[in-house]
Every structure is written in structure tokens, then in C-alpha cells.
Amino acid sequence: MSRLDSMLRRLTAQRDGLNWAVYQISGMAGDVLDMGLGNGRTYDHLREILPDRRIWVMDRVLQCHPSSTPPAEDFLQGEAEPMLQKLAEGGPRIAFGHYDFGRGVKEEDVAEAARLSPLIAQVLLPGGLLISGQPLVGFEQISGPDTIAPDRYLFYRA
Ligand SMILES: C[S@@+](CC[C@H](N)C(=O)[O-])C[C@H]1O[C@@H](n2cnc3c(N)ncnc32)[C@H](O)[C@@H]1O
């Protein structure tokens, strides 16, 4: 498969997973957390599909498209570990987390996701939903939407 085809499949799975999550959390109060602002594409999509939720977004750098710049009070700029610890200070508040950290080096990305998993668990509400491009550890893995091939995107409950 070409890298273009692979990227298209990943982004389609990401979009379908985010849309699916809206219905999964519809009966649950709580905020949303996008881990990895990057260009701001998933953050912008989350704003569109979850307009009534507070959406926290995390990244070590602010380098998104200007139209996707988050409000300062919702942007946690810094390394993931201290930012997750900061978010956890007020107790668990996240009903839905999207994990999109990583830089495309599989072994490093998998190791980082495993290292951050216990910190992510601290910010999630009981029964909260997580979707991720990398395997996370310590959560119950669940099935996602039928349109996404197993293991292309991963789905978890806290
Ligand atoms: C794949 S990009 C995110 C793409 C974004 N969701 C989008 O749709 O445009 C990953 C981002 O995660 C950030 N990142 C990766 N590891 C991080 C860490 N440990 N702490 C903070 N930010 C991190 C990188 O700076 C990068 O901007």
C-alpha cells in the first residue's frame, strides 16, 4: 500500500472514530481532551461535532493553522507528562479523550503511549471513552465503528 493510501485510510478511520464517539458519550457529562494539537485538524473537527463541550488540547508547541488556534485557557502547552498532571489536579473531568501524539516512529510512539497511559487514566472519568492511533495500556479495549478495520484505530473504556 502506498503511503498516500495508508494516510488516507488512517485519516478516514480517525474521522469516523471521532464521529462515532459523539454518540457514545451523549449521555455522559464531562470535557473532551485532544492529545496532540499538531496542525489542529482533529481539534477543529471536535469543535464542530461537539460544540457544547469544553475541549482541552495539548501539545508541546503551538503550530496549528491559525483558524484552529484554541483559546488560551483550553490549551495545555508543554510536555505531556506535566500537562496531564496539571489537568489531573482538579480531579478526573474527561469524558472523551483522543490520543494523537507520536511522530511516526512506531517503536517510540508505542513506548510513549504506554508510558503516558497511567497519567491519562488519572484525568478520565469512570466509563470515559478513549480513542487512539497507538495502543494504550490499562484500559478495557472495546469495538469501534464497523467502518474501521480492527487495529487501524483503537477504542477503550476507562
Ligand atoms: C500527529 S501530530 C497531531 C495531529 C493533530 N491531531 C491534527 O489533527 O492536526 C502529533 C503532535 O503531538 C505532539 N507531541 C508528541 N509527543 C508529545 C509529548 N510527549 N508532549 C507534548 N506534545 C507531544 C507533537 O508536537 C505533534 O504536534
TrEMBL record:
SUPFAM superfamilies: S-adenosyl-L-methionine-dependent methyltransferases. Keywords: Methyltransferase, Transferase. The keyword Transferase applies. GO terms for biological process: methylation. It comes from the Bacteria. One of its GO terms (molecular function) is methyltransferase activity. This is S-adenosyl-L-methionine methyltransferase. It comes from Ruegeria atlantica. The lineage of its organism: Bacteria, Pseudomonadati, Pseudomonadota, Alphaproteobacteria, Rhodobacterales.
